[in-house]
Amino acid sequence: MTAPLYSRILLKLSGEALMGDGQYGVDREVVQRMAREIKDVSDTGVQVAIVIGGGNIFRGMAKAAEGMDRATADYMGMLATVMNALAVQDALEHLGLPTRVLSALHIEQVAEPYIRRRAIRHLEKGRVVIFGAGTGNPFFTTDTAASLRAVEINAEVVLKGTKVDGVYTDDPVTHPEAMRYRELSYSQVLEQNLQVMDATAITLCRDNDMPIIVFSINKSGALMRVMLGEEEGTSVRREIA
Fold this sequence. Notes:
Blueprint: E1 8-13, H1 28-42, E2 47-52, H2 55-58, H3 62-65, H4 70-94, E3 99-103, E4 112-113, H5 116-124, E5 128-132, H6 142-152, E6 157-162, E7 183-185, H7 186-191, H8 199-207, E8 212-216, H9 222-227, E9 234-237
Parallel strand pairs: 1-2, 1-6, 2-5, 3-4, 3-5, 6-8, 7-9
Antiparallel strand pairs: 8-9
Helix pairs in contact: 1-4, 6-8
């Protein structure tokens, strides 16, 4: 088997990817399938860190959050990401994969507090590390948390697993004629306002030369194909000559 291109990755999963065809919540079968794909990558010796969004849970509380103080709503979203992290941890450990959840909010009963050196040590010991609660600060997205953690742990790439298999010229659901980009520069993403990650996350990756690959986590084997350098998804990296 071809060796993976990367030895340490940061996998960003959207909360929406966990809910399958439901309107909110966690689809157990979807999480189990994702866990198997993550295990396949981990079994090759790749060190895997994960950041998960919380949209699948927070979406069910959207009406309650209307008119709420922004900081309060953001903290609720952070708690939703911890719930998702525990769901993914449980699925991975059912497959025999040692896992640690590190939270930016202190919830010692269910997760270790985030400490950079501890996270790196867990990775070096072959444990999958799941980062919960975003950055621990309101007004920052989990995309920004993914970029920040990737830089902090010296990951080689951010892999963003979504429901769509890359970045398109338009919404492929409503515009079937939309074309998928194979590669983009950070500047193109920012200038064209492409919905890859938010501007803060893209800028952080650009300033630290952290490549991003956007792919569909719902496509069977896509994660491994990305790891092997096969054509999958859309890559975002430094300026293209």
